[in-house]
Amino acid sequence: MTNTAAALHTFFAGFGIPDYVENTVPDDATFPYITHQIVQPEWRGSAPFYARVWYRSLSVGGLCAKVDEIAAAIGEGVSIPVSGGAVYLTKDAVFDQYMPFEGDDMLKTAYLSMVIQVHVA
C-alpha cells in the first residue's frame, strides 16, 4: 500500500498544484488543489479509482486546462514506477465530470474517473 500511495502522490503532485489524499486537506489549504483516493487492488487486479481537481474561480477555464493536462499525461494509460513494479492508471469511459456547488458559484471541481492496476511483486 505504501508504494501505491507514494506513486499516486508523485503522479498527481506533478501538475504544479498541491495534492492531498481525499479527506486529508488541511484547513488552511488554498485553491487550486487535487485530491485522490488510495486504492490497492489485488496484485495484477484492477479497481475503480477517482481523483478530483478543485478550483475557486468564477470561470471554469483554469479547471478545464488542468483536467486537460492530467488527461494528456494519462493518455492511453500511464505507468508510474514503484519499488518492485508499477502502478498503472487508465481513464474510465467517462473520464471527467464537472461538478459545481450549489450556493457557492466560485467553488468548482472536476471528478476524474479512472481504473488503477497495481503490479508490485
Give a structural overview:
- There is one protein chain.
- By secondary structure, the protein is of the alpha+beta class.
- The protein has one domain: STM4215-like (2-Layer Sandwich).
- The chain is 21% helix and 47% strand.
- The chain contains two helices and six strands.
- The protein has a six-stranded mixed sheet.
- Strand 4 and strand 5 form a beta hairpin.
- The longest helix is centred in the middle third of the chain and has 14 residues.
- The radius of gyration is 14 Å and the shape is globular.
- The two termini are 12 Å apart.
Layout of helices and strands, plus pairs?
Blueprint: H1 2-13, E1 19-21, E2 33-36, E3 46-56, H2 61-74, E4 78-82, E5 85-101, E6 104-120
Parallel strand pairs: 1-2
Antiparallel strand pairs: 2-3, 3-6, 4-5, 5-6
List keywords for this structure.
six-stranded mixed sheet, 21% helix, 2 helices, alpha+beta, 121 residues, 6 strands
